[in-house]
Amino acid sequence: MEEVPFVVLGTGMAGLGAAYALKAAGARFVCYDKNNSVGGHSRSLRYDNGFTFDEGGHISFTKNAHVQEVFSENVRGSYVESRLTIDNYWQGLRLPHPIQNNLRHLPAELIVQIIADYKASDTCASEGQTSRPSHQTYADWLHRSYGPTFAKTFPMIYGKKYHTTDTENLTTDWIGPRMYRPTIEELVRSALPGTTPIPNYIDGFRYPKTGGFVSFLEPFSDTFRIRVNKRATHLDPKKRTLQFADGETISYGTLISSIPLPDLISIMKGAPDDVLSASKKLAFSTVWLVNLGVGRADVSDAMVTYFYDEDIIISRINLPHLFSPGNAPDGCATIQAEIYFSDRFKPCVDSPQDLIQRTIADLRRCKILREDDRILLADAVVARHANVIYDFDRVPALRVVHGYLDEAGVRYCGRFGHWDHAWTDQAFVSGEDAARAALGS
Ligand SMILES: Cc1cc2nc3c(=O)[nH]c(=O)nc-3n(C[C@H](O)[C@H](O)[C@H](O)COP(=O)(O)OP(=O)(O)OC[C@H]3O[C@@H](n4cnc5c(N)ncnc54)[C@H](O)[C@@H]3O)c2cc1C
Questions:
Q1: Is this prediction's pTM over 0.85?
Q2: Which of 3, 19, 68, 414 could pair with 224 as two cysteines, CB 3.0-4.6 Å apart?
Q3: CATH code for position 69
Q4: Under a CB-based contact definition with an 8 Å cutoff, are residues 355 and 322 in contact?
Q5: Does 44 map to a domain?
Q6: Mutation choice for ligand 1 from 30, 33, 35, 41, CB with most ligand atoms inside 8 A
């Protein structure tokens, strides 16, 4: 068996980032992916009738000039630049985003209670800064940051739908810029007539004009040595061999993996029991995506809508034809609904057909779809690994798993190698970093 100096496992953002750095360094390498095309989570599904959907609405809002340049080169500058429009659905109301900066749209009694609570929690939060316990839960954080009324009415409900578990079971180390906390002045002003400035960590974004998000990556299929339909099934880190589902075995010098850690550990020969059991503690959510093509273009102005009602199965929708008109035939709209489950906390018991029917019923109830709308496409697809769940097992389990991989000489990168909430640009850069570290050693 001839040894391949560098093998990259997975061809999502991270795997391709690793390949990009290896190519730049003139290294010899081969990438392998179990799917039949590149892109991983950043893939796009192009239906015959002219509709295109990503695997979960993907937009590039990176501020990293290098990643911007790579993407732009790959589509030869053919991308749309837009501002992200977001709103929220709650109990029959469409509320501007974020709700905490737009209280004026809520019932008067609720506004009064939110402000009263917030005032109290404001003091509580600043006192809490110095003595915040390290085991603080997301639920605590929400209470302290927004007061109990707002926390219980909005983010705690949404958090459970999205993360599939109660906010009491979640840590806070993933929040970053994701949750805006207005000052008390901003909050009060947002309850008065007028408009409030809208803070959002995502301002502008780029999206390919045609072909969906994966167009940002697709040219790599021709530039790098990539082998698809190659699911890795056995890894012997001592002999440095990798076997695939089709029986082929290869020998490698260095392995850079971007595949989910529990899957990686499960195929590693000689992985100790404590590592195996730690890897099984790494919780993640699975998303079912219901893709709808609609024979009417003006279904909504918002590119993304969040749903706060518990009895609505959808967590959020995105409208790909608003990212780029190239995603739908003229006069038509696209709606993609995200519905979250997890093996650990909320296994899926619905059939794909049930999920489609429930999504359509919910969207009619919210008046996003009309009874007489023509549904030209209805499909449900699953992404098994959607988001990492930041529960209290994550950090100790990661320590064990990463420690073992470091010892075994296996490099890891990407959202499911670092087991975090990396966005596409961060995943790409983490792949580049892993490759550079491998080259350096
Ligand atoms: C619903 C949703 C919406 C998102 N929206 C955005 C957004 O708008 N903007 C943004 O920047 N980020 C977004 N993200 C995050 C983004 O998807 C990730 O950052 C990125 O795709 C992670 O890339 P990755 O290469 O680390 O992982 P992946 O894309 O998951 O790549 C892993 C690859 O490994 C392959 N693989 C797995 N097992 C094996 C095996 N045994 N053998 C061979 N190959 C294997 C898989 O097929 C896959 O191609 C979103 C994520 C989700 C879930």
A1: yes
A2: 19
A3: 3.90.660.20
A4: no
A5: no
A6: 41
